[in-house]
Amino acid sequence: MNIKLIADEAYTSQNNLHVEFISAKNLSSHKHYKLLKKAGFTAKQESVCCLYEKNILVCGIEDNSNDTLRSSCTVAIKAIKNTNYKSASFTVDTQNIHPIVDAIILGGYEFNKYKSKNKQAKIKDIFLTCKSIKEVQKTFEEAVIIAEATAFTRDIVNVAPDDLNPPSFAKLAKKIAHDNSLECTILGEKELKKEKCKAMLAVGRASCHDTKLLHLAYKPKNAKKIISLVGKGLTYDSGGLSLKPATSMVTMKMDKAGACAVLGIIKAVSELKLDVEVHAFVGAVENMIGGNAYKPDDILTSRKGDTIEVRNTDAEGRLVLADVLDYAQEKVQSDYLFDFATLTGACMVALGQYTTGVMGHSSRLKHSISKSASVAGELTAPLPFNKHLKKQLKSDIADICNISNKPYGGAITAGLFLDNFIKEKNKNKWLHFDIAGSAYTETPWDVNVYGGTGAGVRFMSEFLKNIR
Ligand code: BES
Ligand code: ZN
Ligand code: ZN
């Protein structure tokens, strides 16, 4: 499916379906009102009516917000894919181009890698028509780059864990680096031992795949700011010896979604040619069981030097991130440090499965992210730190415990565990994004279809686009 911006005010052809949005309030003034009424169409949000004789698809919309348009347009693109039309057209302007592009690329997204028979949709071209191309061209191109980077992130999240393991992740990172002219450094187990990344290595010890740390860098001339992104890349999380129940283990290939998001973001930034330097660090690890598995009661010495009492091997992401965050802070002196991780089930309990949890010390930075997210069409919400929750991580035998001693506030205590590994000078530069709920879905919502959603890519790209 190609998406093109064209100048014609109204593109018409016998093979083209034109899409219109209409509210209940304006329905009676539609030129085909009689036909629509006959079809029982009431312009309810998320409802569509195809007037085949007129080559028009009419979509109900309850208000003129971008959020509503994005959802409505997603319903439209799914309906279009079920027809025999070769092309479809939408009328756009600068205001609505972003939600329409997101809906077409992300709402119309399919992952067919493992299907032996592909049902090919007939639709070939989507035309966005507008009065003055000049005004919207740049917005259009940026929106397409960001939506496609989000789809790319979904593609890697959706790959099966046997196909995407730490070594193949490293190969993929090299390819991304090559295709986008990025610098690329890969650390294997030998180098990670030298780097004293013992917490991260312990998590991956029972896996038949080597643990890897990936570092990609986009370095434009005259960069205004330096950004470090860190992603949790658990290519599979069985829970380790604190084994997950069978039903919770299904979908745990998605535990690499933070890593996939940071790769999607650096790809978007390099294609957008933003003048910010971006570093993407990924801890690619598989959490498995075996005779050599790390275990509850183990004491691990982190790269930072702090000792960690392991009380649950399923709280593995924070152990990996502890070392990768420390490595990232030592290698790059950045203006901002963001980590993306499917870190806790507790984040979903707190916020629901649609919202990314945002944690950190800087209210200003959290506010700024919240603005970018609402423009980009992602849901985020702050989860506040406090000193009482921090105490719940105290260990009687080591410097810190990898889980809290109380059952509540699990997303925040996980964030506070990471905070322990953030250097004092970076406290206000850092935010942690818990994407456990938002990164993957088994039921479609908004522009998200079954599987990876690409959470994080749109709001972070929007934030980086506006950085001064
Ligand atoms: N990867 C999981 C978190 C997760 C759960 C992500 C469900 C997506 C969906 C993480 O490694 C984990 O297992 N966390 C534990 C922490 C607990 C042992 C303190 C959890 O959330 O149960
Ligand atoms: Zn886990
Ligand atoms: Zn995990």
Would you mind describing this structure in some detail?
With 468 residues, the protein is an alpha/beta fold. The chain folds into 2 domains: 2-132, Leucine Aminopeptidase, subunit E, domain 1; 146-465, Zn peptidases (Aminopeptidase), CATH 3.40.630. It contains 15 helices and 19 strands. The strands form 4 sheets. Strands 7-8-10-9-13-17-14-15 form an 8-stranded mixed sheet, sandwiched between helices. Helix 12 (363-376) links the parallel strand 14 and strand 15 (380-382). The chain is elongated and about 75 Å long. The chain starts with a strand and ends with a helix. The structure holds ligand BES and zinc ion (2 copies). The site of one zinc ion has 4 residues, from loops.
Compact description:
An eight-stranded mixed beta sheet has the order 7-8-10-9-13-17-14-15, sandwiched between helices. A six-stranded mixed beta sheet has the order 1-6-5-2-4-3. It has helices at residues 33-38, 66-81, 97-107, 133-158, 166-179, 189-194, 198-204, 246-249, 257-272, 317-331, 345-351, 363-376, 387-391, 410-419, 457-465, and strands spanning 2-6, 16-22, 48-51, 56-60, 87-91, 125-129, 183-187, 212-218, 226-237, 277-287, 299-301, 307-309, 336-341, 356-360, 380-382, 400-401, 430-434, 440-441, 451-452. It has 468 residues and is α/β, with parallel strands linked by helices.
